[in-house]
């Protein structure tokens, strides 16, 4: 890729040294190996005891890991319902087709989850749930599990970089604004660093201004791979932005600076 070539290490004369085919292949193999290792970890959460429990803002919850190919039927129903409640509006007319895509993505073997579960004395009450008809349906489908949100993430390669891609971050309406979204994103960033992924990436609908504000607050920036930065004209036609938070210099240079 032409843009990537500009950022290769320079030799002392100041002339750019293009990586050899061998170096490119070795780099590709190293990235694939990082992904393979990360995917093989059974429970990413196990490495982060500080993230097992969250007790703040009248909320007491615990976190649990999951995989797309091991979701129970009530969990699948819960995810589908919460996605509909939260995302139908921001997607607008794109929702019916997007919903189908999300249903397939949900159960993929590569999908990794962190579920947020309420302790039985958690303070999301029956009354507050009834304020939202959609959420009531969620709990009807999954009353025993007492879920109140989740994050779906994957280890992938983007722009030749090892990446944690956040596919979904979803809190029930009554669990929003209590710091849980930030807590989960902090965990995702820790998981990324521990597994030597250089960056966390995600896609946000432009119409989802609350999510945009949330990620901006967490210092996510529009990636150089987002349509609006690739070509402003194409950007206008697209309904989404790709955001990123790079951790190493290569990811920063490629995705933040667009070199
Ligand atoms: C977007 C979402 C994940 C955020 O999670 P949350 O638990 O509600 O947010 P938090 O309470 O953790 O907020 C974290 C920080 O972001 C800020 N923030 C949250 N929403 C904000 C908003 N709309 N505008 C400005 N700042 C906001 C908070 O003030 C907080 O800042 P602080 O740490 O200085 O107090 C959650 O609201 C949600 O599930 N929304 C519906 C689904 C969705 O849109 N998901 C994202 C799809 S890409």
**CATH second-level architecture:** 3-Layer(aba) Sandwich
Which ligands does the model contain, each kind named once?
Answer: coenzyme A
Biggest pleated-sheet summary? 8 strands, mixed
Count of domains: 1
Q: What does the overall shape look like?
A: globular
- CATH class category label: Alpha Beta
Instruction: Report the radius of gyration as a whole number of Å.
Output: 20 Å
H/E element sequence: HHEEHHEHHEEHEHEHHEH
Task: State the distance separating the first and last CA atoms.
Answer: 11 Å
Helix content estimate: 40-55%
Beta-strand residue percentage: 15-25%
* Name of the CATH superfamily: Gcn5-related N-acetyltransferase (GNAT)
Strand order of the largest sheet: 1-2-3-4-5-6-8-7
The chain-level mean pLDDT equals 88
Number of DSSP helical runs: 11
Low-confidence stretches: 1-14, 122-131, 137-143
> Helix- and strand-based class?
alpha+beta
CATH topology: Aminopeptidase
Protein name: N-alpha-acetyltransferase 40
Enzyme class: transferase
GO molecular function, one term: histone H4 acetyltransferase activity
EC number: 2.3.1.257
How is the secondary structure organized here?
Blueprint: H1 2-5, H2 21-40, E1 53-56, E2 59-67, H3 73-91, H4 95-106, E3 112-118, H5 126-130, H6 133-141, E4 147-158, E5 161-171, H7 180-194, E6 199-205, H8 209-217, E7 221-222, H9 227-230, H10 232-237, E8 240-246, H11 249-256
Parallel strand pairs: 5-6
Antiparallel strand pairs: 1-2, 2-3, 3-4, 4-5, 6-8, 7-8
Bound molecules: coenzyme A.
